[in-house]
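Here is the promised in-class demo. Please do not try to memorize the tokens; focus on the logic of going from shape to residues.
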């Protein structure tokens, strides 16, 4: 059984003028344990919506999202939150770090909603991403690349089976982008997590052996 399995997934939004716009209409998709896959897609192609459907942040209009044998789309909100917290690590393009907390506190807070706070693991993860001397720094005291490293450590804090990365290099220059992708891939391999990354950047996509076009997965192109 795949780690992630999607069947007949559909999500439609209503525009201000009342017109409906189907963003995701996917007959089938699967991702195995420990697998790495990059999905390409231009802005507005539904990349973030797709990841939000997988994570249970959005509910689909139809179809099923099954993660680790549980149907995410059939769970109640608090059950989706718990499954996401314990099985999924999410790396956002804008990092979503809490500015009023230190790097270490940002990672520890993420643990509170998952498998429980593990102070030693949080420090180990921050050291692994090269921030052993920044534990007590706030995000605003860090460079953009360093903030991304905190986001990576936080995403892995609950030992997820699946890491979702949404344009994780969108705010980084080319050199930092290459470094960030290498770091994400390395840390996922070390922890045994599968990785699903979405991006429109050719240099990011070029670092992956498996790349698929999100538009080609939708029903209109199937």
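The designed amino acids, position by position:
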């Amino acid at each position: 059984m795949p780690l992630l399995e999607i069947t007949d997934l559909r999500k439609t939004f209503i525009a201000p003028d009342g017109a409906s716009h189907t963003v995701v209409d996917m007959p089938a998709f699967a991702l195995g344990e420990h697998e790495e896959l990059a999905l390409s897609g231009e802005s507005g192609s539904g990349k973030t919506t797709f990841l939000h459907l997988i994570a249970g942040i959005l509910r689909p209009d139809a179809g099923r999202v099954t993660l680790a044998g549980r149907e995410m789309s059939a769970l109640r909100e608090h059950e989706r939150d718990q499954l996401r917290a314990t099985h999924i690590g999410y790396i956002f393009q804008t990092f979503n770090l809490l500015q009023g907390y230190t790097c270490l506190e940002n990672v520890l807070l993420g643990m509170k909603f998952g498998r429980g706070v593990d102070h030693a693991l949080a420090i180990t993860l921050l050291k692994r991403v090269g921030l052993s001397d920044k534990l007590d720094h706030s995000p605003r005291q860090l460079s953009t690349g360093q903030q991304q490293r905190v986001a990576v450590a936080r995403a892995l804090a609950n030992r997820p089976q699946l890491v979702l990365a949404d344009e994780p290099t969108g705010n980084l220059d080319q050199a930092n982008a290459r470094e960030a992708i290498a770091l994400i891939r390395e840390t996922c391999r070390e922890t045994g997590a599968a990785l699903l990354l979405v991006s429109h950047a050719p240099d990011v996509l070029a670092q992956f052996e498996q790349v698929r076009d999100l538009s080609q997965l939708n029903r209109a192109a199937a």
